[in-house]
Specification:
Elements (H helix, E strand, L loop, with lengths): L8 E4 L5 H9 L4 E4 L3 H8 L10 H6 L3 E4 L10 E4 L14 H11 L7 E4 L7 H14 L8 E4 L18 E3 L4 H12 L6 E3 L3 H32 L3 H8 L21 H11 L6 H10 L1 H15 L8 E5 L15 H10 L3 E5 L5 H8 L12 E6 L4 H12 L2 E9 L11 E2 L1
Parallel strand pairs: 1-2, 1-4, 2-3, 4-5, 5-6, 7-8, 9-10, 9-11, 11-12, 12-13
Length: about 425
């Protein structure tokens, strides 16, 4: 079995997860960051990260790291770490195509004694049921005789400058006891927060997928409470603040649940549960509630406009924020698009402003072209959908100035004082 100090590492996939990991390993060990997107490789070679997760100085400090989009450049590595996305399709089923592609790439360069480690979020069993057979077929090698596998789920929080890859405790696992020890020791070289070695790959997979499932269900509960309190005419935040005076009350807030994890991972677990004959009820009920919150926000705004006798059809509506969370450019699975689509169903003219977003990416992903700047005094309704710091800096007066006299201001994120907006989620 390899020793950690002898590892020559290939990171397969250089997104929000892969790049920070590649930088950390690249400080110590020979590391190749591999991605199939030539434009991504070009920007990283130029010292620029468009995800804003890694600074130019951090890239420069990883002196053992190089980047490539050529498979031949990772053929000399002996440790392959797959950090590709695991999205869902339109029917909310796991879309394993990126993971399968990464497994094929790794299988084509595997040599006897090599170790493949997967970080992508999957259902329990996926690594050994999906990835391993592909690598065996591509390499002609035999699992746990010629090559070995580990699983160490990512815990990256995009846009979070306090919780970084190095200071978040890492779960590790391996296909044999010796492999598990190697994977754990390898990550201990870069993870200052320490590691937790799980007893099996399936346990590690399950641990990862329930982390965000738990958050999703908790947010769904608070979202359902917000739906109830809206009908009762009670301010949800006031209720949560009052309840939060109890020491063990969990501080969740209602909102739009998107992103690459919380709005996706539960479907991986429910897919596997249904495959083995169990129909999950609580998890799927939570998903239905959270997936319906965009339509609820749009309905609330339409009712506000109607009460003010503002025609909704042909109204100009401004949505502030498009990313799935504040202060980061990540557009993956943003549920702000649900609000936009619902309002367009009422024939409103919806415009979007988000200073964090790449306009070309938004156009390609969602068919939405964000404004360079919103026009003051143009809008009948304004929806504060994402709590970017730029919007906080604008304050109520600056945001109100974008609307017409008597326009509606709806705050999804509780960013502004309650008495200075028309309604909040």
């Amino acid at each position: 079995m390899l020793k950690p100090e002898d590892a020559r590492i290939a990171i397969v996939g250089l997104g929000y997860v892969g790049l920070p990991l590649a930088v950390e390993f690249g400080r110590q060990l020979p590391t190749v960051g591999f991605d199939v997107n030539p434009a991504r490789i070009a920007e990283l070679r130029a010292g620029r990260d468009s995800t804003l997760e890694v600074s130019e100085a951090e890239l420069a400090a990883a002196r053992h790291l190089r980047f490539s989009d050529q498979r031949g450049d990772i053929a000399d590595c002996n440790v392959y770490i797959a950090t590709v996305p695991t999205p869902i399709d339109k029917a909310r089923r796991p879309d394993l195509r990126p993971l399968e592609s990464a497994s094929r790439t790794i299988g084509q360069v595997l040599a006897p004694g090599d170790v493949a480690i997967f970080e992508s979020t999957v259902y329990p069993g996926a690594t050994e049921e999906v990835c391993v057979p592909i690598m065996e077929a591509e390499s002609g090698l035999v699992y746990n005789r010629d090559f070995f596998v580990g699983y160490s789920p990512e815990r990256i929080n995009p846009g979070d400058k306090a919780h970084r890859v190095t200071n978040i405790l890492k779960v590790t696992s391996g296909s044999t006891a010796e492999t598990a020890d190697f994977v754990d020791a390898l990550y201990q070289r870069v993870i200052t927060a320490g590691t937790h070695k799980a007893s099996s790959i399936r346990v590690a997979e399950a641990a990862k997928v329930i982390e965000n499932t738990q958050r999703d269900v908790n947010i769904a509960l608070v979202n359902e409470l917000a739906l109830i309190f809206d009908r009762l005419g009670i301010d949800t935040e006031e209720v949560l603040k009052a309840a939060g005076t109890k020491w063990n009350f969990l501080p969740f807030r209602p909102g739009l649940v998107g992103g690459h994890c919380i709005g996706v991972d539960p479907y991986y677990l429910t897919h596997k549960a249904q495959e083995i004959g169990y129909h999950p009820e609580v998890i799927l009920a939570g998903r239905r509630i959270n997936d319906g919150m965009g339509a609820h926000v749009a309905e609330r705004v339409v009712k506000l406009m109607t009460r003010r006798r503002l025609p909704v059809a042909d109204a100009n509506v401004l949505v502030l924020g498009l990313t799935f969370k504040e202060n980061c450019p990540d557009l993956r699975n943003t549920r702000v698009v649900d609000v936009i689509e619902e309002l367009r169903g009422y024939h409103a003219n919806v415009e979007v402003y988000d200073p964090w977003v790449d306009a070309e990416e938004a156009q390609a992903e969602y068919g939405i072209r964000p404004l360079a700047e919103p026009e003051p005094g143009r809008y009948d309704a304004i929806i504060l959908a994402v709590a970017h710091r730029q919007f906080a800096d604008m304050g109520v007066a600056g945001i109100r100035a974008l609307g017409k006299p008597g326009s509606v201001l709806f705050d999804v994120k509780y960013l502004l004082p309650a008495d200075q907006v028309d309604e909040r989620l």
